[in-house]
């Protein structure tokens, strides 16, 4: 189990990866808090549920809470650089779903760029300024 944790948290990348991780984390934090609480001019759960219903997403209320919570909590973890690789996985799934539902008419460039950033973070980890780097320090040194 310790080996697995070390592998998940290991990162050897530069400062710019940390900066990208923080930006991606803030994007998801902002989106999730907008879905859950209506912060940052978000729609709140009721608005997101109606939006998901219009897209034909099954169980729209459950998925509004699920996606909002994943984005909110995952965004905080991503900003901190804690479990970056693990957090990137649901973010990739959320962005793929956005491409194939909300942005299926061709305006998919924004979620595609976020998807690519999340795939990069999945590959390289959280960067030199991250809790992952501190946790993986024993293995790398």
List keywords for this structure.
single chain; 141 residues; 8 helices
Describe the overall structure:
This protein has 141 residues and is mainly α. The chain has one domain. It has 8 helices and no strands. It has helices spanning 2-9, 15-37, 44-55, 60-80, 84-100, 109-124, 131-135, 137-140. Helix 2 crosses helix 6 and helix 5 runs antiparallel to helix 6 (109-124). It is elongated and about 45 Å long. The chain starts with a helix and ends with a helix. The mean pLDDT is 90.
Compact overview of the structure:
By secondary structure, the chain is mainly α. The protein has eight helices and no strands.
Distance between the termini: 19 Å
Which overall shape is indicated by the principal axes computed on the Cα atoms?
elongated
Number of helices: 8
Oligomer description: single chain
Structurally, the number of domains stands at 1
Overall helicity: over 70%
Element-level helix/strand string: HHHHHHHH
Helices and strands in order:
Layout (H helix, E strand, L loop, with lengths): L1 H8 L5 H23 L6 H12 L4 H21 L3 H17 L8 H16 L6 H5 L1 H4 L1
